[in-house]
UniProtKB/TrEMBL annotation:
Stored Pfam families: LRR_9
Annotated TM spans: none
Keyword line: Coiled coil, Leucine-rich repeat, Repeat
Region (Disordered): 560-583
Gene of this entry: Lrrc49
Coiled-coil zones: 292-325
Manganese found in the keyword field: no
PANTHER family, sorted: LEUCINE-RICH REPEAT-CONTAINING PROTEIN 49 (PTHR45973:SF8), PROTEIN PHOSPHATASE 1 REGULATORY SUBUNIT SDS22-RELATED (PTHR45973)
Calcium among keywords: no
Protein known as: LRC49 protein
Length: 669
């Protein structure tokens, strides 16, 4: 077949001698299957005699020309006939030639196969380069072994049911879109479907003797059933749409395949193409019409292993990314459920008249009888998500990303000095800010070089919360995402940060560089606030807030020592050198909800103890008073009785003395 792979040479002696098997040989040196397919005795006998060896007559009873050959010609070429380039539009009636075995209609204008049903001994039929649109008229040709229908207008493979002895089927250069109706051709050895409109290779089951399959110049993007062909040796897939090795992966399971062409496909442009094909198809002898050497096989094996490792690593990274995405989605859902539950509880406590309550910005009517069911729904949702990770810790370059409250536990790990030293940015997501405050001390110890803090979905709602960041070692950048942090909606929040954390000399806030004007404005807006806070608090309260390291300095201020030469400027310079915060700013501190609740609980316990203690003292005093009053009432009578008993006892002086001596004696004994 022209431009489609190989050259098929038919031996006329095999056709003439029925006792010999029908043979064909493949000329691998050329790339044409149909170039002079009849390069044998057929052309030699007919090329010089077409004008006088045969003639067409007309039949009055039919519309078809009738072919007549001379007796001499019939004797010389009794079993073959060539009618190529005769400008035929129909197949002529071939009268008296029932014994023909080879018939050639190349290069004509025939549109329909007809008038050859009587040629039941026909073995070779060539209709190359005609205008045939449908396969037909072949049902009686049961002996046919070679059928050449290349370069026609055929759109569908059909009407081949009775050609069970077919060896070669050439349908190249047609308009066929699907391989079908050929599974019964169990004797077929060569199938040429090049230059058609095929997109998928399928329906090849049953072709157990097929050795050569030509599918060049189609639109093939996937192969099926090819590995089920036990005798397939040569497969031509040049110039198709095969873009990945997975599209032809089934070929790796073919043990008989020795030659394959894939040039002209997108896959052939890949750097790993040759190595991958050779690695998975070790049985190949030729690839893209080039013989494969042992060195190429060895190199392919090494390269394929490297490529496999790269793909495995890439797949691993993809899985890790997907797991990370799913984990973050799960953490976000749990965070949302937690926020909804918190908002629901708060709304139920504040509003018992069934008024609309906001839940994450939306209004919802909650009735008492429905509150339990909603809580159950939320709880079940959390349990359903518990199959995934509830937190995530990730180090990306110099950034430590913490997702979920459970991620804060990573600060208790034994981080290597190298890893901890490169961490410059710490990002918090889906974590309550109050929980973050509790670990800030650990954070500055574990990661001493961290200078950039990021907050997203952390419930930063008040300016006072930023005061908790003062306990950090150093902060150069601060990023607060508007998502999940309502405090960003306050116009002055940046100025408060600059004022309260002035000792850090913050360079950027939310990616915007801090200017001198920003610092001056912050001082003007909130300077009076720090003065009021420090002047209104009692001294003992101020001392507890400032801490041991500031107590001496604070006492000096109270005693007026700060007025002595250089004290005020020294404080400022010390603060700058040591990175410490000023005393007045330290008054603007933040107490977390949990700490505040603990303090309230402690105060409540102390109050209860004091109340109980005072009550016991009062009760004891009351009892003493009652006893005193009773004694006052009984004392006169008791005194009279005491005097009377004493008089009676000493009335007889001798007896009394004896009694006293007896008591003394008894005591000594």
């Amino acid at each position: 077949v022209n431009n489609c792979g190989l050259q098929l040479v038919i031996h006329a002696s095999s056709i003439a001698d029925k006792s010999k098997p029908f043979e064909f040989r493949i000329n691998k040196e050329q790339s044409s299957f149909h170039n002079r397919l009849l390069q044998h005795d057929l052309e030699k006998n007919y090329s010089g005699r077409q004008g006088d060896a045969q003639y067409f007559g007309s039949s009055s009873s039919t519309a078809f020309p009738v072919l007549h050959r001379t007796t001499e010609e019939k004797i010389l070429n009794s079993d073959r006939l060539s009618l190529e380039r005769q400008k035929l539009t129909v197949c002529p009636i071939i009268d008296g030639e029932d014994h023909l075995r080879l018939l050639n209609f190349q290069h004509n204008f025939i549109t329909q196969i007809q008038n050859i049903s009587n040629l039941q001994h026909l073995v070779f039929l060539d209709l190359y380069d005609n205008q045939i649109e449908e396969i037909g008229g072949l049902s009686t040709l049961r002996s046919l072994r070679v059928l050449l229908l290349g370069k026609n207008r055929i759109k569908k493979i059909s009407n081949l049911e009775n050609l069970k002895n077919l060896d070669v089927l050439d349908l190249h250069g047609n308009q066929i879109t699907k391989i079908e109706n050929i599974s019964h051709l169990s004797e077929l050895r060569v199938l040429n479907l090049a230059r058609n409109l095929l997109t998928i290779v399928e329906n090849l089951n049953g072709l157990d003797l097929l050795t050569e399959l030509n599918l060049c110049h189609n639109q093939v993007s996937a192969l099926k059933d090819v590995d089920a062909l036990p005798c397939l040796q040569r497969l031509f897939l040049s110039f198709n749409n095969i873009s990945s090795f997975e599209d032809i992966l089934c070929l790796a399971d073919s043990s008989s395949l020795s030659d394959i062409t894939l040039d002209g496909n997108p896959i052939a442009q890949e750097t790993w193409y040759k190595h991958t094909v050779l690695h998975h198809m070790m049985q190949l002898r030729q690839l893209d019409m080039k013989r494969i050497t042992e060195e190429e096989r060895r190199m392919a094996s090494v390269a394929a292993r490297k490529e496999e490792e790269r793909k495995r690593e890439s797949h691993k990274q993809t899985l890790l990314k997907e797991k990370k995405r799913l984990t973050i989605c799960n953490i976000a859902r749990q965070w949302e459920i937690q926020q909804n539950q918190t908002a629901l509880v708060a709304s139920l406590n504040q509003d018992k008249d069934n008024e609309p309550c906001p839940i994450n910005g939306s209004a919802a009517y909650v009735f008492p009888e429905e509150s339990r069911s909603l809580d159950t729904i939320l709880s079940s949702a959390v349990q359903g998500l518990s199959v995934l990770e509830s937190h995530l810790v990730e180090v990306e370059g110099d950034t430590l990303c913490l997702y979920g409250a459970g991620a804060l536990e990573c600060l208790d790990r034994n981080w290597s000095v190298q890893t901890a030293g490169i961490i410059a940015t710490v990002s918090f997501m889906f974590i309550e800010f109050d929980e973050i405050v509790e670990v800030l001390t650990k954070l500055k110890i574990k990661f001493p070089n961290s200078v950039h803090l990021k907050f997203k979905e952390t419930n930063l709602v008040t300016l006072q919360q930023f005061s908790a960041l003062a306990q950090m070692h150093r902060i150069e950048q601060l990023t607060v995402d508007p998502q999940g942090n309502p405090v960003v909606s306050f116009t002055l929040w940046k100025y408060y940060v600059l004022f309260r954390l002035n000792h850090f000399n913050i360079q950027k806030i939310n990616g915007v560089k801090v200017t001198e004007n920003d610092i001056v404005m912050a001082e003007r807006l909130f300077g009076i606030l720090a003065y009021v806070a420090s002047s209104e608090l009692p001294n003992y309260r101020m001392l507890s807030l400032v801490g041991e390291s500031r107590r001496k300095q604070f006492h000096d201020l109270l005693e007026g020592k700060g007025k002595k030469s250089g004290i005020g400027s020294e404080e400022t310079s010390d603060n700058g050198r040591n990175g410490g915060e000023s005393t007045t700013r330290a008054m603007l501190n933040y107490t977390t909800k949990d700490f505040h609740m603990e303090k309230l609980e402690e105060i409540k316990e102390r109050k209860t103890f004091c109340q109980t203690y005072v009550e016991n003292l009062v009760q004891e005093a009351a009892d003493i008073n009652m006893k005193n009053e009773s004694l006052q009432k009984l004392w006169p009578q008791m005194f009279i009785e005491l005097v009377r008993d004493a008089v009676i006892e000493i009335r007889n002086k001798n007896s009394y003395m004896k009694l006293c001596l007896q008591r003394i004696t008894d005591q000594k004994q």
